[in-house]
Specification:
Helix content is 47%, strand content 15%. By secondary structure, the protein is of the alpha/beta class. Strands 7-10-11-4-1-12-13-17-18 form a 9-stranded mixed beta sheet, sandwiched between helices. The longest helix is centred in the first third of the chain and has 29 residues. It binds (1S)-1,5-anhydro-1-(4-bromo-2,5-dihydroxyphenyl)-D-glucitol (Z57).
Length: 830
């Protein structure tokens, strides 16, 4: 009802209204009464209270978009690393204070309630978290958008540490119920696998193909509302859950093979069981391809259904939708949209291809050759015979074009083919995505240039206008406002609350960088965050760290190219100097590590063991541990991350130049006032440019120097021989000092460094050590450091995901905001 006061509205936002709704939810949703309610019950009641307020916005948003036939962005991603929802939803609704007050009135602590929430970890690392930041910004910018993905029953594994080794435990995020999702049992689409194809002639005498699948299952939708910040727009995240069909296995059922059918049912439901835990994937897992096709097919069918509710045919499909492929994981969509148009909707090839090519855009997130997805033709054809045919046809037409264009260059034509020829023929998914899209983008300026000059070079020469850059971004709602309340308070006092929507307003900090009183407030902010992290680390590991020391932090997936072991070489060098009584960096430091290793990645797991082994020796040694501490935060996830970024003084972004596509943790750190020690890689380049070269600790080879070094026959052994300290450090690792006398434990790591060193740690070692020393010195100049810290926050507003989404909207999607206002909503219930 218009004009109804907040007190009378069922979904009011005052502490009184929230309390009443909370008590109601406790009773009617949780079916609990006060005396027996567990902390988890309190969380659930709070979540349902908040959800009610989201639902009215969500329904109104859906109605507004539908009535306007709004052009809609569909973000297709196999991963969404959302992190806990309750705190973020309170922020985006603007009711944190109300909720805190309401909780207090009822004798509860809001933080304790927030801590109850398990983390929806439906992603591995950067790519999945990026998708989550983009959902936040799409809603905040009032862009009609749907996120499509997979409702994994088990997200990324929980990491625990036993004797210094990573142990994986199954993630159980759904076991206590998920209050944020709405199951849609009636919103189901069939998805087929296997079998064969048959030609036939349709009623118009046209040649057609029929796919006779072996297996049919269903995808069922689970919907999660995604609030915008400070707007009423609330978008949809639709995740698909696999269930068996009624006659689960056509073959088995006809034969009356009941147990065979039961097996098929189990196999069907396995598709959405678990997230593959590799950040840069190992290839060739059949179930992984099934997952990809499964969610893509459901999503495209859903888009078509919605489109055909409002349009007579599919002609305008690409005007209604822009579908973004988040890496190649959903790139089978190109073949699936063709199949749906051709086989299910009777279109001819040219019309289907026109729609397909104008619907998709593709984001590349890596140049690592081992991470570029390809599928063996044999496996592909067995699972998706019709799609393989379609891909062959796309390829045949594409290669004809290429031969016309490059008649004397058959090698180029072979390089560009969708099929890699060789002992095992493979489908190249990046080529499929590029040929089937109207735009291709990289995720940082340097990365986009490398995409054009290396992996996609031939394609860039053919279609230069197709290639773009959109530098990644991160949401300031979660990674500043929610994670760092003190910083939020400082900026809000200067700039007003609007900066959270317009992060460029962080610039209002800049004129205060040298103001003594302001610097004190800034230091108090850092200090509070460091104390929170210290308390959490103590709780999680028992380790005691000193908030006065320089917090030098590297948190990210463990990978050789990210060079956590370069960081370790520096730590061991500092240790070695102290033990030798040599003059050494007098700045007390706490080195913090965190990150998961892919379960099958031996070297990454050995790096985790080495971190713990070095920590054990250093932290126990009274001669050293006043100046150095080393800790590993187990189970790095969004929840832990929120506590870590604000506490950092120094952010380690030390990948080999050319290997990290962008990085996004680098942005979260510098927004929170950490200085970066980093290479000219990924978004580091742009961060350094934005904050000013004098406020960034740069070291290391550039991309072209890396290339040259490798081309000239890089010999790490010679660097080892020529650098006394480096040699002593590596010899210490090989001495058994860090492995209870076992000289072999870390041999795979040291051997790799001395023999090949593919990520050039030794080449970058001297510069890294020297730059670390400068950082240590700079930290002792408190005013100077504080100034640099303030300038890092002040100048990194451009790394807001709002900026990134604006660029996608303008350059790639050509979609406009459609603001939604609840004030005009008649459906609101009193
Ligand atoms: C992933 O997290 C990233 C790339 C991949 O190819 C896969 Br698979 C997973 C990361 C990059 O490594 C980061 O550099 C980048 O910031 C992030 O994706 C988001 O673009």
């Amino acid at each position: 009802m218009h004009g109804s006061s907040d007190e009378r509205t069922r979904t009011g936002m005052s502490p009184e209204a929230l309390k009443r709704a909370f008590v109601d939810s406790m009773f009617y949703v949780q079916a609990r009464y006060w005396e027996v309610a567990t902390p988890h019950d309190l969380y659930m009641a709070a979540a349902y209270t908040v959800r009610d307020r989201m639902l009215e916005r969500w329904i109104h948003t859906a109605e507004t978009y539908r009535k306007a036939h709004a052009r809609t962005v569909c973000y297709l991603s196999a991963e969404y690393l959302l992190g806990p929802q309750l705190g973020n939803n309170l922020i985006n609704l603007g009711i944190v204070d109300s909720a805190r007050q309401g909780a207090r009135d009822l004798g509860m602590d809001l933080q304790e309630i927030l801590d109850q929430e398990p983390e929806p970890g439906l992603g591995n690392g950067g790519l999945g978290r990026l998708a989550a930041c983009y959902l936040d910004s799409l809603a905040t910018l009032s862009i009609p958008a749907i996120g499509y993905g997979i409702r994994y029953e088990h997200g990324i594994f929980d990491q625990s540490i036993v004797d210094g080794w990573q142990v994986e435990d199954c993630d159980l995020w759904l076991t206590n119920g998920n209050p944020w999702e709405i199951p849609r049992p009636l919103l189901r689409f069939p998805v087929r696998f296997g079998g064969h194809t048959e030609p036939y002639t349709d009623e118009h005498g046209r040649f057609r193909v029929r796919w006779v699948p072996e297996l049919e299952l269903y995808g069922m939708a689970y919907d999660t509302p995604i609030l915008g910040f400070g707007v009423d727009n609330t978008n949809l995240l639709r995740l698909w859950h696999a269930t068996a069909g009624r006659s689960f296995d056509l073959q088995a059922f006809q034969k009356g093979d009941y147990y065979g059918a039961v097996n098929a049912k189990v196999a069907a439901e396995n598709i959405t069981k678990v997230l593959y835990p590799n950040d840069e994937p190992e290839a060739g897992k059949e179930l992984r391809l099934k997952q990809q096709y499964f969610f893509v097919s459901c999503s495209l069918q859903d888009m078509m259904r919605a489109h055909l509710q409002q349009a007579p045919n599919l002609e305008g499909f690409h005007e209604r939708y822009a579908a973004q492929l988040n890496d190649t994981h959903p790139s089978i969509a190109v073949a699936e949209l063709m199949r749906l148009c051709l086989d299910e909707h009777g279109m001819d090839w040219e019309a289907a291809w026109e729609i397909t090519r104008r619907t998709f855009a593709y984001t590349n997130h890596t140049l690592l050759p081992e991470a570029l997805e390809t599928w063996p033709v044999e496996l592909f054809g067995r699972l998706l015979p019709r799609h393989l045919e379609i891909i062959y046809e796309i390829n045949a037409r594409f290669l004809d074009e290429l031969r016309m264009r490059y008649p004397f260059d058959p090698e180029r034509v072979a390089r560009m083919s969708l099929i890699e020829e060789g002992p095992v023929r493979r489908v190249r998914m990046a080529h499929l995505a590029t040929v089937g899209s109207f735009a291709v983008n990289g995720v940082a300026a340097i990365h986009s240039e490398l995409v054009k000059s290396t992996v996609m070079r031939d394609f860039h020469e053919l279609w230069p206008e197709k290639f773009h850059n959109v530098t990644n971004g991160v949401t300031p709602r979660r990674f500043v406002q929610l994670s760092n309340p003190e910083l939020c308070g400082i900026v809000t006092d200067l700039a007003g609350p609007g900066w959270v929507r317009d992060a460029e307003n962080l610039r209002t900090l800049e004129p205060h960088a040298d103001d003594a009183a302001f610097q004190q407030r800034w230091q108090a902010m850092k200090r509070a965050a460091k104390e929170r992290l210290a308390a959490r680390i103590r709780e999680a590991t028992g380790a005691v760290i000193d908030p006065q020391s320089l917090f030098d932090i590297q948190v990210k997936r463990i990978h050789e190219y990210k060079r956590q072991h370069l960081n370790l070489l520096h730590i061991v060098a500092l240790y070695h100097r102290i033990k030798q009584g040599a003059d050494s960096d007098p700045t007390p430091r706490t080195f913090v590590f965190g990150g998961k290793a892919a379960p099958g990645y031996f070297m990454a797991k050995l790096i985790i063991k080495l971190i713990h082994s070095v920590a054990e020796v250093i932290n126990r040694d009274p001669e050293v541990n006043e100046r150095l501490r080393v800790v590993f935060v187990p189970n790095f996830n969004v929840k832990n991350a929120e506590c870590i970024y604000p506490a950092a003084d120094l952010s380690e972004q030390i990948s080999t130049a050319g290997k990290e596509a962008s990085g996004t943790g680098n942005m979260k750190f510098s927004m929170n006032g950490a200085l970066t020690i980093g290479t000219l890689d990924g978004a580091n380049v742009e961060i350094r440019h934005a904050v000013g070269h004098e406020n960034f600790f740069l070291f290391g080879l550039t991309v072209s120097e890396v290339e040259r070094t490798l081309a000239e026959g890089y010999c790490p052994w010679e660097i080892y021989r020529g650098n006394d300290e480096l040699r002593e450090v590596i010899d210490l690792l090989r001495s058994g000092l860090f492995s209870h006398g076992d000289p072999d434990l870390f041999r795979p790591l040291t051997d790799s460094l001395l023999q090949h060193d593919p990520y050039l740690l030794l080449a970058d070692y001297p510069a890294y050590i020297e730059t670390q020393a400068r950082a240590g010195d700079a930290f002792r100049d408190v005013a100077g450091w504080t100034r640099m810290s303030i300038l890092n926050s002040a100048r990194t507003g451009c790394f807001s995901s709002d900026r990134a989404i604006r660029e996608y909207c303008g350059k790639i999607w050509r979609v406009e905001p459609m603001p939604v206002s609840l004030a005009t909503n008649d459906a609101r219930v009193s």
